[in-house]
Protein 1
Amino acid sequence: MRVALFITCVNDTLFPGTGKAVVSLLRRLGCDVDFPAAQTCCGQMHVNTGYREEGVRLARHFTEVFAGYDAVVAPSGSCAAMVREQYPKLARPGSRGAAAIAEVAPKVHELSEFLIDVLKVEDVGAYFPHRVTYHPTCHSLRGLRLGDRPTRLLQHVRGLELVPLPGAEECCGFGGTFAVKNPAVSAAMGADKTRNIMDTGAEVLCAADNSCLMHIGGTLSRQKTGVRTMHLAEILASTEEAQ
């Protein structure tokens, strides 16, 4: 299977280790992974703030860059949801752009979707001997409807103790530009999420979106909680040899 990694802006700029973890994991599972260097932003921020034409241009570029692959994997429920849910709404019905989106968008998968739904695997051979709690981000929960896919993968990681997160389905307060436009509300929501994380006694907070982990992690760090944040891909890529 010829797979392309769609790294996303946040990961490319701030969390390159997550992209490396995805490549390592997929290659371990027998995938031929490519990284198209011409890829850019998916346009989510532009469309969400009213710059529709810019979003259309970026959607067109995305379909050109990722055409021809068997699958496109993104370590982000947020950006995968943008391509699958929003791109079809940007194109004019019957246009070449609409046809290109119809061809590429269904092949775009968030990592846990790809592992469980496409590769049909739940035990990826990972080892991570730590107490972990999982935060289901809003786009992965309500947009892609990932359900229990990420936790099923975590439950098969050797040595990992998965503990439930109280109020797991509540937003962490990031919400992209929401955190910028409504900082006080965003910070209050982040504080609530942090309090619930601390109640679990977990060493590590895991999620499928680094944007949310960045927001929550800032509060965890400022409060000197000692709780680490880790993307799902990094835990799944961990092995006993790497510990």
Protein 2
Amino acid sequence: MEEPEVHPDLEPIAFLLGRWEGAGVGGYPTIESFNFGQEIEFGHNGKPFLSYVSRTWLLDQDGNRVRPLATESGYWRAQPNRQLEVVLAHPTGIVEIYVGEVVFHKIELQTDVVARTVTAKEYTAGRRLYGLVKGNLMWAYDMAATGHPLTSHMSAELKKVG
């Protein structure tokens, strides 16, 4: 089957399409700093949204995989005037809706809605920044959780693969 054409509404975020891999750093007031590996895949089916899956794993000092960390999946929905809506689900019982804006190859998002199951950890807000820098996808994530305000949590640099 032939790959469908990218929907014209996706033009501002089409640079995300494909598979990205790399590494980053994380930390939070309640945990020790850590290094992680990550793979992200953005896909499409010809409709005006991107599918999204991210997987991360803990890395040791030598860069070897130790164990799985977070995973999330969802949809990135382009809106008029370079606005963006992102819906993410986490297996830890959290669902987030982000809203934001695309300016050239930079995306700024903040949570509009956070919903949690009764067993999920306390998490109240997130802010994400994505940017294409010299062909690499750079991103940073701030979160508000466990009584802390928005605080830097993770960032990474990913290279397009395949």
Protein 3
Amino acid sequence: MNPRQAEIERNTLETQIRVTLNLDGSGQADLHTGLPFLDHMIHQIVRHGLFDMRIQAQGDLDIDAHHTVEDIGITLGQAFARAVGDKAGIQRYGHAYVPLDEALSRVVVDLSGRPGLIFAVEFPRAQVGDFDVDLFHEFFQGFVNHAQVTLHLDTLRGSNTHHIAETLFKACGRALRMAVAPDPRMAGAVPSTKGTLTL
């Protein structure tokens, strides 16, 4: 398969973001979002997805983290869509269950070409440190809309907010890794009866 890499830059009055992504990496991350807990979570996607990723972000964090988190999700989704290309010869579907102590989450993804998010997650606390965990929904919504994937995130159990968040991001990395993996039996064909998975 051709190198599956992308670089996207997004500049608005609220944020300036650059993302580089290699789907066939080794789990190397260089993340500078200005939000350490978000860096920690995205690093889970990178390591467990075996992607290489660099994110440089400057945002209006003096207001709050909403614009920065959402726009990182958007930019990462754009990079993912570009890197995966026409989806010929890949698995298309991916899923993972990931535990961390008492927490257990399930993530299922379809590189369908149709944006769709089911976020069945309840956090016991509103924040981890000074990070508002409600913003994870905005991150994944931005990603889904621009990666053009269907993504189901379900927390099956858990009482520790940090653990729940970490299982979601680890499972997301694993599910995406499975979905983008080459499928030798597809012999380069697009895995759809329509013959296309792009809008």
